[in-house]
Structure formats: C-alpha cells, structure tokens
Amino acid sequence: MLIELALISGVGYFFQKQQHKAEQIQSMPDKPPATSQDDQLPARPFNTGQFLRDINKAMAADGRQQLLVDIDPKVLETIEKERLRANQRLKLALSAMGLALLGSVYPVFSVFGVAGVLYLSRRMFVRVWRDFKLKHYISSNLVGLVMTLGMLATGHLLLAAFAGVMGSFFAKIIDRVEGSTQQQLINTFSQYPEKVWVLKDNVEIQTDFQNVRINDIVVVNAGEIIPVDGTIQSGVANIDQHILTGESHPAEKSAGDKVFASTLLLSGRIYIRVETSGETTAAARIGNVLNYTQSYKDTLVTRGRRISDRFVPVTLGISAVTLPLLGPNSATAVLWSGLGSTMGMLGPVSVLIYSQILARQGILIKDGRVLESLKQVNTIVFDKTGTLTLEQPTVATIYNIGGFSADTVLSHAAAAEYRQPHPIAKAILAKAEELQLELPERDEASYEVGYGIKVIVEGKVVRVGSARFLQREGVEWPASILPIQQQAEANSHSLIYVGIDRQLAGILEMQPSIRPEAEGIIRYLKQRGFKLVIISGDHQEPTRRMAETLGIEHYFAETLPENKAALVRQLRDEGDFVCFIGDGINDAIALKSAQTSISLKGASTAATDTAQIIFMDGTLNHLEQLFRFMDEFEDTMSKNLTTSLAPGIISIGGIYFFNFGIPAAMELLYLGCFAGLGNSLLPLVKYQEEAPAQEKQEEEELVAEKC
C-alpha cells in the first residue's frame, strides 16, 4: 500500500494549486522563438521550486489557457466552468475514498463507500455503452469498469475507491488534452458590429444589425467590416476581399459593383443596397457548411488510449483463462496488470507537458490530439494569400512614360503618399527608401477617398491613384499602356498610376510580398520529405509563379472555398495525411477537413476557431520548431510505451508463478506509472521556465553572499 499512498501524495501535490489557476490568467512574457534545438535558451541551474511550478502549470494547461484568452477573452468563462465541474468530480471521488477508509474501521460506512464508488463509476458505464454502440469495439473503459466491480465483489472497497480517485485525476488530464468539449461552433458573425448605420429618408440613423432588411441602404466607412451582401448605390472604395475570395490585392469598387459581408473597407465611404444579410450572406453560407462538415478530430482518440484499447482483448482473455485456473482474486489481479493501460494516462501527460513548452514558445496547441498526429503528416497544404504572403505588397516594376525617369515617378509617388497609413503607400515608401531616393517637398495635398491623392510638389500637380481617378482628373491617357494593364490583370497584380500635371508619368505595378521566412521554411520542409501543395482562390498565373519561386511542385488556383475542402479530401483519399495552413474564412472548411490544421494569430475568427494549432506571432517561423519538438515528443512516447508494457508482463508472470495478488499487481502498475511519469516530466527539466523575478533576485543575492 505504500506505493498507492505515495502516488496519492505526489499527484495531490502536483494538483494542489490547480483550483486557483484559471481565476486570474495573466499575459505571458514574450520570448524569442527558437528555430532549432541548438538555439534554445542557455542552460540554467536546475531550480526545484520552479520545476514543481512548471509541472503544476502543465497539468493545469496554464500556458494553453493564457494563449486562448489572448485570442478570445470570452473563453475564460468556459475555462472556469470546466474547472469547477472537474473539481466537483474530484471532491466526490475523495469523499468516496473517505467513506471507504471509515468503512475499514466502522463497517456500517462500507455501504456508503460502495454507493460512492458506484456513483463515481456511472460515467464509466456511459463510456462503455458509447464505445460499444457508436464505435463497435470494447475499450479500456470496460476493463476499468470490470476491475472496479471485481474489487467491490472481492471486498477490496478501499482499492476500488482509490481507483476512483485516480480515475478522476486522469479524467481531468484527458479532458484538457482533447479540448473538444470547449470548442464552440463557428460564429461567422463575431466580426460584425452590433450597430450599423442605415439611410432612412436621406437621414443616417444607427440601428441594431439584426434589424437590417433587404433593400435597406447600409452606410459603411473606411476601416469597417462590411456587414451585408449587396450592391453599391453610391461611393467608391478599396475593399480587402482576400479573407473571402482569396484575391491577393484590394478591389476597387464603385456604384453597381457587388460587395460581400465580412470583407474589410480599406478606404472610402459607400452606400450599399442590402441583398442578403444574416444567415444568407456568402460568409454565413460558408459558416453553415463549416458547422455541418465533420472534423477529422471528431473521430480521434488519444494515441495512449488507442494503445491501451489495443491490449484490452489480450488482458481480458488472460483474465478469463485465469478465473477457472487460479480464482477470482488472481483474475482481477490480471486485470490490474494493465498491459499498455498506463499509456491512457502517460500519453495525455506528455501531451500536456509539450503543450506547455510549446505555449511558452508562442505555439498554441488547442487540441492535444493533434500533437500525437503530427508524426503521420506527409503532405502540407498552404493557402497562398495571407499565409504565404504579407498584407503589404511590393513595388515589382516601375514603368516610366512620357520622358519621365523611373526615379522621378517613384520619388513623386512616395512624396504624395508620405505618411499615408494604407499598405500600398507603405510599399511605395519602402521601395523609395530601398533605392535611397530623396523625396521632393510637397506643398499641399487633397486625398479623395477611394480614388487617389493629389499633391502639389515643387510647383507641379502630382496625382497618384487608380486609372479612374487620373482619367477623371483629365490626365492624358496613352494607348501604349494597354499591354501593361492586360499583363497586370493576368498576373493578378494591381497598378498604381502616377500623373505629373496633365501627363501620365508612370505606372507602379504592385505584387504580393512573399513572407520573408517562407523560403527558409519551405526548404526545411522539403528536406524532411514533405509533399508541399498550394491551394489558392487567386488567379492561375500568380499562383503558378509563387509555387515556382518557392520550389513547390503542386498547386491549385482559382479554387472556391468549398472546393478547397474537396481537394483536401481528395488528397486524403489518395493516402496523404494532410496538414492545412490557412488564415481566411475561405480556408475554414479546408482547415476542418484536414487531419491537422494550423492558422496564424490575426487571421479570421473562422480560421482561428477551426484550426487546431495557432502560431501566436502571426508568422510561419514556428513551423520548423513545431516539427522539431514533435521529434522529441515521439521519443518520449516511445519510452512511455516501454514503461507501460514491462510492469504488466512482470505482473502476469508473478501471478502465475509467485502467487501475486491484487495489491502486488497494483503496486507494479503504479511503479510503471512512476517510471512513465518521470520520463514524461523530463522535458520540463530540459526546457525549464525562467523563475519569477523575485525568486531570481533572491537566488542572485544568495550567490553574491556566498561569493
């Protein structure tokens, strides 16, 4: 019994502070991400107190909870409710244990102890029935139930109650790993304002979004999310539609053009006649498809449980054979040998440990089961726009016209756009800085929202903006630029026109900027042997050129959101294990359809709600680090399997040859638990979190005194 008491004491210490963890979640200090195992923080002296705190944080999923709250503060309420329910179940288990202890002294309490154990086992009955009815197989839940009933039948009430306590501990761990019970259905309206402006009798009035009706005129200003699908009645604007359509550059829209809910109005002011709103918008239809698309993770169980379940028939078979040969005590002891059974606990513990370590690096593992699936990934599919590209474009080509030099065109455009906040202005200024151009002084400026900007520079009128803007301003329009326009349209590039006085001085061709980290990440993934694919809603030519630039052989262009998911399913049907990386509403269905999914912080709500892994720095830099940690995780799991099998084999041998009973079998099982827990906790030693500032100062003062 010493092993059992030691385990209760040890695990109890690990969890004793858990009740206070979710009450106040603070922001995690930023740490620079490591890109390889050799780049980890320098080794520090081992700090026992900090190590125990690290264990406590890992078991409470503290790091993951902090990052979840960082993405959506509303999740804190859900975390608190889950914590209270788990603690209530644990208190019931401890009460049953107390009654069992009293029963060993005062037999009358044994009746209440048995009732308490059976009450604790009710969830096990439900799980056994669910496994049999829905999955048509016998799981480790059945073994646990038979063991509990067997111990009650053979008079081992205290051991049965102890098993209930340990089961409650482990249930809390597994619930945190799976995390699916905390997931909400995708709410595609989370980005919409509660109030919108509607034009009534030539007066703009504010009303609830829910009150908007078809044919109402909704007014949307720069920086706002468009809340409805409809047609522009008046006004001009630049709209970022990539989150929905995958287009790589903003679309200029004016009267008569269609606009869509969930897209962002970058500049301008438009009046929209409502055609669809609420659940009938394009974004909502994607959301509805998403809600009814079965996620791959819905069918997942933790790998530890799969291994444990795999040995169930073996354990039950040996126990059945033992019953007539050696009696019920020995048969129950065989069940306690638990071949592979501790993997049901060690696997989730390892997942929580690595989830905590990854959270400190800025990688949020929302569903721990995905960490166990990463090893199977052989195909990585990237969305193009917003995932492989940056928000800010690049000036790809400067076309000088009418005798003006390219430097003159760029410097005057940069002077006009100086201090403008939008991405195109920043791209023009960045190009001028790269070429070390000196910008001429501007005298005055007028910015026509949605069209362009007009500036007086050194006595000349400089106009920068769309073709429509310059033509309306009376700038001469040579026919020679038609091939430039056609080529840009084919490449899905946007053109910014620069006029000086009444002449067209030049054209700036803007192309999407590939993320600076993308080439290195792609190179690393190819070295590991992954099949790489780009799926994009953008046009064929820009998708082809990006794939060629990055050295990616497989790509699909002009793909609708529902077709992205179909392509993912096609890859799965061909035998690929797919990891999809995306950031938009148009990626959400594909994210849900893939076996593993990754998104970036700052992406659409639909993407971050759906993805299983979030890179909190908003870049792809963590991708290499994720797979390096996955290698270490796999090594840990391999050693855990050894510690899970060896004690069971010894136990069965002892039952047949040395007359081992239930207590001995339990002690061997928990000895294996200790060994496995030690192995699972080792990564926390290797990647020990830095101690709090106050404790660190005290340690430094102590060292100084010794010196």
UniProtKB/TrEMBL annotation:
What's the protein's topology in the membrane?
Multi-pass membrane protein
What transmembrane ranges does the database entry give? 92-121, 141-166
Query: Where would you say this protein principally sits, based on its record?
Result: membrane
* Pfam families, sorted: E1-E2_ATPase, Hydrolase
Sorted alphabetically, which keywords does the UniProt record give? ATP-binding, Cell membrane, Ion transport, Magnesium, Membrane, Metal-binding, Nucleotide-binding, Phosphoprotein, Translocase, Transmembrane, Transmembrane helix, Transport
Q: Where is the P-type ATPase A domain?
A: 193-289
Which PROSITE patterns does the UniProt entry name for this protein? ATPASE_E1_E2, COF_2
Subcellular location per the Swiss-Prot or TrEMBL entry = Cell membrane
Record's family?
A: Belongs to the cation transport ATPase (P-type) (TC 3.A.3) family. Type IB subfamily.
Protein name (Swiss-Prot/TrEMBL): Heavy metal translocating P-type ATPase
